[in-house]
Amino acid sequence: MADETTTEALTEYGRRTHVEAILEALGPVQGLDIFDVGCGEAQTSRELASAGARVSGFDPYIDGTDWTAHRTGSFRLVRASADALPVDDRSADVVLFIFSLHHVPHLRLTAALAEARRVLKQSGRLLVAEPLARGPGHYVSAPFHDETAVRAAAASAVRADAVPHFGTHQIFSYAEQRHWESFERYAERMIRNRRFNGYTEEAVLAPEVRRRFDEMFPAGSGTFEQPVRIDLFSLPSVP
Q: Is residue 170 part of a domain?
């Protein structure tokens, strides 16, 4: 993963949801075994199951579930860390890190990417989607949740521990949109996200955060457009 000044060729998708961008990058997922690592509230896992995939969502902060049918696919949740997935070798067609790789502790990033390679089937794919440190959302959240350093660490790990081990590397970008009716709705959502992050409710409600929100959206509501980069890797095919 290059930094934000990269000169590497990007395929630009424009405005997309996470799942829309994932499906454009991967193509049809019907019948695929997908591991969503760091799935959080598992919204992406459920949407990919709706598209016909068999999705396992892994996160150290969730409660596990049994397999659940979901439209044309199915999903389950498993409490597990990124560097210790309780599954067999070569059991996934796709491993996803959607806004989650930078949450892996720095000293465990190499192990997490090695674990992704372990669980991928031959010709399996690894997709890493990371938010870029720019745009209104980054500006407003920076006083309480500046992820510049951890995102840089994740990017460095991808360059060191993913690029050399895969046969194909493609890069895509898109803009994820989130509409907030008011600062209060924005703060409510950020406060709910505390269990996946390290900030406090008081930090979210600080005057500087409100000032930045109002600076971006003087009318009191607006749409944050978050630039996102996808790095998609494929393991070499075996004859």
A: yes
